[in-house]
Design brief:
The structure holds two protein chains of two kinds. By secondary structure, chain A is mostly helical. Chain A is built from five helices and no strands. By secondary structure, chain B is mostly helical. Helices cover 58% and strands 6% of the residues of chain B. In chain B, strands 1-2 form a two-stranded antiparallel ribbon. The longest helix of chain B is centred in the last third of the chain and has 10 residues. The chains are: A mainly alpha, B mainly alpha. The interface between A and B is medium-sized, with 10 and 15 residues.
């Protein structure tokens, strides 16, 4: 059960969620921009890597805060779902790399990491919820 | 693990939602505990025992194989 939070706190959380989503989206675009020019300096390309990694963090914090207000049952569901998503994500990456190596996909094919991770996480949590709903 | 949660709740005429509110968890959590799909944490088991004014052992018991 979600805990009751004051309106001001809820408003801050809502704004932070929107801000994190913007960072997630535009951070990826900024990263692409910074690393796309292979003639750019090493510092610029490293900045691209830095932006790509650290603009994900606010979104992860939002997820962590969301989890902290759930009760132990839902937290367990999300934990199972996250573990499952980790396995699925690993399988996706291995499968993708092997498919490129086997020349089933064009060399240099692009896997949208963040989008894939978010979708797999949602699938994992859904499967976790279904598992707890219907387990014997 | 088997439990007498549903019986104790029915004796007091409480809904799952009402019991959940009393111990600070969701209706779904109470339902999952009642149906044996989810084993509660020790703090939650103690809270349940407290609202029913009994002991944890009076509510929960091990089944053969547990």
């Amino acid at each position: 059960m979600a805990k009751v939070v004051p309106l001001k706190q809820a408003l801050i959380f809502w704004i932070a969620t929107i801000g994190s989503a913007f960072l997630l989206y535009y951070g990826a675009q900024l990263t692409d921009f910074l690393i796309s020019d292979t003639h750019a300096s090493t510092w610029v390309r490293w900045a691209g890597v830095f932006v790509g990694v650290f603009t994900i963090l606010p979104w992860l914090v939002i997820i962590a805060v969301s989890l902290s207000v759930l009760d132990e049952y839902y937290r367990r569901v999300v934990l199972i779902g996250t573990a499952l998503a980790f396995v699925l994500d690993l399988m996706l990456h291995v499968g993708f790399n092997v498919a490129v190596d086997a020349q089933l996909l064009r060399p240099g094919s692009y896997l949208p990491e963040t989008g894939a991770a978010i979708i797999l996480w949602m699938i994992g949590v859904s499967v976790g919820a279904i598992y707890y709903r219907f387990r014997l | 693990m088997k439990n007498r949660l549903r019986v104790l709740r029915a004796e007091r005429n409480w809904s799952q939602l009402e019991l959940g509110n009393r111990v600070g968890v969701s209706r779904q959590a109470i339902n999952a505990v009642e149906t044996g799909k989810f084993d509660p944490s020790l703090p939650l088991a103690l809270k349940l025992a407290r609202v029913f004014e009994t002991t944890v052992e009076a509510i929960f018991d091990l089944e053969p194989g547990d």
